[in-house]
TrEMBL record:
CDD domains (alphabetical): fer2
Pfam families in UniProt: Fer2, Fer2_2
Ranges in a coiled coil: none
Keyword Metal-binding: yes
Keywords noted in UniProt: 2Fe-2S, Iron, Iron-sulfur, Metal-binding, Oxidoreductase
Signal peptide as annotated in the record: none
Keyword Iron in record: yes
Entry EC number(s): 1.2.7.4
One GO MF term: anaerobic carbon-monoxide dehydrogenase activity
Record protein name field: Carbon-monoxide dehydrogenase small subunit
Domain 2Fe-2S ferredoxin-type: 7-83
Length: 163
């Protein structure tokens, strides 16, 4: 049996350049979790349906379970570990905690990354906007009402910070 060829990649993860040697078929979710030790990114369905593995690639949400790590060499990634600022939790993280927008927490990292990008692009969303914005992330625990409340609360917190 021959060993699979590995490729040297550099990813700027949460503002820090990180290197890894990965097989061509290594998924970004696996590279983050197993090669870089960033276990905040969760893997749920492994088909891109649930959104648990969502990270920000150059600021845009992507499914890390559908993305090969070698294809993002040299790009910037933000994982759930990188959302908090130097002062603690981000407004989105604070809002999810305040509004009980999480229960078991498995889907939460994907929601946090998705909502961070969503509110950057739509800082004053309607209920319909929020429902559409989070429609690619599945939660089996909350029933979504508190997640929707958390998105609106995060928008309020972000508006307060920018005043």
């Amino acid at each position: 049996m021959t060993q699979e060829e590995r490729h040297e990649i550099t990813l700027v993860v949460n503002g820090v350049a990180r290197q890894a040697r990965v097989p061509a078929r290594r998924l970004l979710s696996d590279a983050l979790r197993h090669d870089l030790g960033l276990t905040g990114t969760h893997v749920g369905c492994e088909h891109g349906v649930c959104g648990c593995c969502t990270v920000l690639l150059d600021g845009e949400p992507v499914r890390s379970c559908l993305t090969f790590a070698v294809t993002v060499d040299g790009r910037e990634l933000t994982t759930v570990e990188g959302l908090a600022g130097p002062g603690g939790m981000s407004p989105v993280q604070r809002a999810f905690a305040e509004c009980h927008g999480l229960q078991c927490g498995f889907c939460t990292p994907g929601f946090l990354c998705t909502v961070t990008a969503f509110l950057r692009d739509n800082p004053s969303p309607t209920d319909d906007d929020v429902i559409e914005g989070i429609s690619g992330n599945l939660c089996r625990c909350t029933g979504y009402q508190n997640i929707v409340k958390a998105v609106h609360r995060a928008a309020e917190l972000m508006a307060e910070e920018s005043e």
